[in-house]
Amino acid sequence: MLPVVTAPGDVLSRRCQEVSADDPAVVALAADLLATMAVSPGCVGLAANQVGVPWRVFCVDVRGHPKTGADHGALVMVNPVLVSATRKERAREGCMSVPDFTGDVRRATRVTMGGYLPGSGDEIEVVTDAFEARALLHELDHIDGLLFLDRVAGPHAVHPRQTYR
Questions:
Q1: Which of 18, 93, 123, 139 is catalytic?
Q2: pLDDT score for 165
Q3: What is the DSSP letter of 2?
Q4: Long-range contacts for 30-39 (Cβ within 8 Å, ≥24 apart)?
Q5: Mind listing the pLDDT tens digit for each residue in 16-58?
Q6: Is the pLDDT of residue 60 over 90?
Q7: What is the distance between the alpha carbons of residues 48 and 103, in angstroms, rounded to a whole number?
Q8: Domain limits of the chain?
Q9: Is pTM, for the whole model, over 0.85?
Q10: Please, is 91 exposed, middle or buried when counting C-beta atoms within 10 Å of its C-beta (0-12, 13-18, 19+)?
Q11: What is the CATH number that goes with domain 10-160?
């Protein structure tokens, strides 16, 4: 498991650099991101800069989450680009890099995103909706240097994270 950078870490507020999808270091990072996400309770996405690497790489896996509609399984995208986004809705988000808060964020619920697969470098296009669309947009924000706190919907939209016992 890789250590997660928390706000206000500098790497979280800068746009990440594009990388070659077939670079062995990118492939290794993709595996490490998936492994870190898998052992982090409640985590459905993780961007490279959240583990201190300023590259345009992230992973998303919403399988088993109660808000999941579309589900492409464990997905790693290299150099992702938003193609289209429609149907905005407001919902609560949290983040491993902002461990003590959640916030209400307005995001598209129908998304098309292009990018590349690590290793093969094959170009992919993901068309999705609901919670998976939100997760993709959240991670894209990360590699663009934004946190969900930068998008909260209104002055009272940030909430202390509740713990349940």
A1: 139
A2: 36
A3: P
A4: 30/57, 30/59, 30/76, 30/78, 30/118, 30/119, 32/2, 33/2, 33/57, 33/58, 33/59, 33/76, 34/59, 34/61, 34/74, 34/76, 35/1, 36/1, 36/2, 36/4, 37/61, 39/1
A5: 999 999 999 999 999 999 999 999 988 999 999 999 999 999 9
A6: yes
A7: 22
A8: 10-160
A9: yes
A10: middle
A11: 3.90.45.10
Residues 66 and 106: their CA atoms lie apart, in Å, by 19
Residues comprising the chain, all counted: 165
> Rounded to an integer, what distance in angstroms lies between the CA atom of residue 69 and that of residue 140?
19
> Which two structure tokens, joined as six digits, stand for 161?
């994270």
Q: Which two tokens stand for residue 88?
A: 């905005």
Looking up tokens 């964020």, which residue turns up?
105
d(CA 89, CA 86): 9
Going 142 to 36 to 79 to 117, the CA torsion angle's sign is negative
pLDDT of residue 153: 74
Q: Cβ distance 143 to 46 under 8 Å?
A: no
> Do 144 and 15 touch, CB atoms closer than 8 A?
yes
125 is catalytic: no
Strand partners, 55: 17
